[in-house]
Amino acid sequence: MKKLKILVINPGSTSTKVAVFENKVPVIEKSISHSDKELSQFDDLLGQYDFRKGIILQWLNENNVEIRQLDYVIGRGGLIQPVTSGIYQVNDKMIEDLKTSAMKHASSLGAFIAQEIALQIGKEAYIADPIVVDELDDIARVSGHPLYERKSVFHALNHKAIARRHADLMDAECSELRLIVAHLGGGISVGAHRYGKVVDVNQALDGEGPFSPERSGSLPVGDIIRNAFSNQYSKSEMHSNLVGNGGMKAYLGTNDGKEVADRILEGDLQALEVIKAMAYQVSKSIGEMATVLKGKVDAILLTGGMARDEVITNEIIARTNFIAPVHIYPGEDEMLALAENIILMDHGKLKAKEYMG
Fold first, then answer.
1. DSSP 200-255
2. Domain boundaries along the sequence of the chain
3. Among 169, 99, 88, 154, which Cα is nearest to 125's?
4. b/e per residue, 282-303, with b = 16+ CB within 10 A?
5. pLDDT in tens, 207-262
6. Which residue, among 153, 66, 73, has the nearest Cα to 114 in the 3D structure?
7. Which residues are registered as beta bridge partners of 21?
8. CATH architecture of the domain covering 156-331
9. Model confidence, pTM
10. What residues pair up with 29 in beta bridges, in sequence order?
């Protein structure tokens, strides 16, 4: 069987992850960090495009990778219009929607960079399971006021990949299982997977759910309104309190999970209390999703970087294992997940979808 050579590009807020896979094996890979000083020279996110693309091309050249030898190029999907799960060919409509999106996220650069490199070698570029995958039940969209419909913005790429991995291990298909997946990273998303579709999930980008290392999650709305009109905070400061400087960072001054784990080992009781509170809120969200699935849950899957932290996972297991068996899949593996989508497409198990916007 031919080894597919796949370039995978995953831009993050302070780094760009890049790898060349041969099938599912990363031949070379690197996480390229970007300092605040480097990024502050750009007026906005899209201004970083040439900078990040240049770094990737330089890295490929330094590692003697001839881009014309690539079979596929795929980037992480960004803030396009809501779509169903799957792999999408990058097209002009997608690029236009990424340019004009009201919300901004570094993942949106993935499609731009992938398309530019693919065009250089006469191939198509792809994204897969962007953060706006939307498979919500209609009832899950109702928020409590018609001005504020609930939206699906979550770690779709990792949710879907981990659900597939678990199904494979169980010798089953996702379409046969009812799962609850909790992604525990810089943001936290907890989703109800019913027979392959995520029918309910918290809006993890800025809106709701458990607090995380840098996001405040669901807060008392009345207090937020009073603060917003107190003249003490600007609009950007209010947003920063919710996303970026909220959650664990607001309580402990850091969003570094390893640093907090070390502080707990050193006897820091405040750090322990905050981590347990985070696990408590994740557990409550898992309980909520169990009701979405009407109590019929085959497994609870914990994934993301914080799934390596035994304090967090032990707390969640203790509170939720009465619902279903809890399985831990630490890390994110977003790069592998992107490569796997290409392989499934190449083997005819997935068909690339056309983005219509």
1. EE--TTTTSSS--SSB--S--HHHHHHHHTTTSS-HHHHHHHHBTSSHHHHHHS--
2. 5-134+335-354, 156-331
3. 88
4. bbebbeebbebbeeebbbbbbb
5. 799 999 999 999 999 999 999 999 999 999 999 999 989 999 999 999 989 999 99
6. 73
7. 6, 26
8. 2-Layer Sandwich (3.30)
9. 0.91
10. 19
What amino acid occupies position 73?
Answer: V
Beta bridge mates, 180? 192, 300
Lowest model confidence (mean pLDDT) among 4-13, 269-278, 334-343: 4-13
Assess whether the region 5-134+335-354 and the region 156-331 belong to the same CATH fold: yes
Angle formed by the axes of helices 109-120 and 92-100, to 10°?
150
**What sign results for the dihedral spanned by CA atoms 160, 133, 211, 287?**
negative
Nearest to 179 by CA among 313, 39, 292: 292
Q: Are 20 and 26 in contact (CB under 8 A)?
A: yes
Tokens of 314: 């032990």
339, 161 contact by CB (below 8 A): no
In whole angstroms, give the CA distance from residue 245 to residue 185: 15
Q: Within a 13 Å sphere around the CA of 164, how many CA atoms are in the beta-carbon half? A: 17
Angle between helices 156-169 and 334-346 (to 10 degrees): 70
CA atoms within 13 A on the CB side of 33: 3
Q: How many residues does the structure list for the chain?
A: 357
Tokens standing for residue 26: 């990363």
Task: Answer left, alpha or beta for residue 17, where phi above 0 means left and psi between -120 and 50 means alpha.
Answer: beta
β-pair partners for 198: 193
Query: What are the C-alpha distances in Å from 199 to residues 160, 177, 193, 355?
Result: 13, 13, 6, 21
Q: Which of 223, 222, 237, 160 is nearest to 196 (CA)?
A: 160
CATH superfamily of 5-134+335-354: ATPase, nucleotide binding domain (3.30.420.40)
